[in-house]
Amino acid sequence: MIKFLPLGGANEIGANCYYLNLDETGILLDCGMHPRKTGLDALPDFNLLKDKPLDYVLITHAHQDHINSLPFLVKSFPHVKIVTTPQTRALAELTLHNAISILKRQINDDSFQIYSHEEVDLLIKSIDYKAYNEPFVITGHRSAGKEKVTAEFYDAGHVLGSAGILISYDNKKIFYTGDINLSSQTIISEASLPKTKVDILITECTYGATDSSTLNDWNEEVERFITSLNKILNRGGSVLIPVFSLGKMQEILATLNLKMIEGKLTETDIYTGGISKKINRVYDYNRYVVNRNERELVLHDIPQKNIYEINNTEDLFKYPSIVLASSGMMNENTMSFTLARRWLREKDSAIFTVGYMDEESPGFKFACANRGDKIKLSESEKETEVRCEINNFKFSAHARREELLEIVKMLKPGNVILVHGDEDAINWVGKFVLKMKKGIKVTSAAVKNEISFA
After folding, report:
1. Cα–Cα dist 292/184, whole Å
2. 326-355 pLDDT per residue, tens
3. What's the maximum distance between 2 C-alpha atoms anywhere in the chain?
4. Is the Cα dihedral 328, 329, 330, 333 positive or negative?
5. I need a surface site. Which of 82, 137, 293, 422 has the fewest CB within 10 A?
6. CA distances (Å), 358 to each of 12, 213, 325, 408, 421, in order?
7. Fold of the domain built from segment(s) 216-392
8. Where are the domains of the chain?
9. CATH number for the domain running over 2-210+398-453
């Protein structure tokens, strides 16, 4: 008997965490934290694991919504074995330590115990790692005499180290996409998929509700992006680009550098900083190890100024500049949110969004605003007039909805479980999967709702 139970992130882009019970061998797929919630509300519902076997946690990649709850889980399940790709293990060491300072800024509740740097150090040492396409055995505490469980990571094409997970058990195959991308970015190449039919496909649906006619090819979007940057820089303005420190920062930084080298982008100062510089080094160190583009490009060698060493934000407008600041969704108390407040007053400057924005995030308010609009950045603030230019670009690190259908077509599953998307996204994917193949069973996952397979 195979049982699937979402603990979080099922019908939203939040605290991704999915429990598999394979005849009493317990496996968690990801262990994330909700990026817009705080305290216990941000965690998966670990109470659902009570009285259930838990042997392994397999992490697909090092983004907050897929890994940041891991230290909380280990406090309750210290015996659990953790496996990632080598690159995700290296990135997790950076992102989990960085999360501690973010949590301390967000939480004023003494009853919520934030994990320590020492606990993160111990956790990282306990992580086992497996390269792509290196099958490994999963042995549960209650699995004596039962069918062997094996797992294997496949490059998901999302960020460095990201993986889809193929699990084999009792002549059945389960594939969890994690966050997957079938198209190449500037640095990260497209995903690879198993060359075998699977019985159960657990797939993300991030862009399920997005009409792909509104999404340019990556290179076409780069050209539009560079043209718009030149327009702002050549009139003396500066451009703020909110980015995720892992993934989008490296892709956009590489794009800017390559276009300056080609002479297609006006040379100007680029500001970065914080954890992203350390992440850049991990990308550099692994550039010959994983399947990536622009292997000779060393991110650390790209001229960059430190945004955290600027004492007066007015300095950013004395000369044209480009600022890459986290967070990507411009959450409150982050560098991008703080700078955006100042940017709104500059008529010659611009804010460029470059990726997915949750509709409830502050970044979504910015992305939907036009010059002359008045927007309220938080409940406690007055409305602010938008004087700067705002342009939106879609550099997607997720599969388009047609590509999600292509995954179904290639893997030929009998069962499809839809996760990691809002209601409209999941409904679109579900509808068209059912149209594709007669007899296929499609389920929209929901937290606390267990799904069983014979």
Report:
1. 9
2. 989 898 888 999 999 999 999 999 999 998
3. 72
4. negative
5. 137
6. 10, 20, 18, 26, 10
7. Rossmann fold (3.40.50)
8. 2-210+398-453, 216-392
9. 3.60.15.10
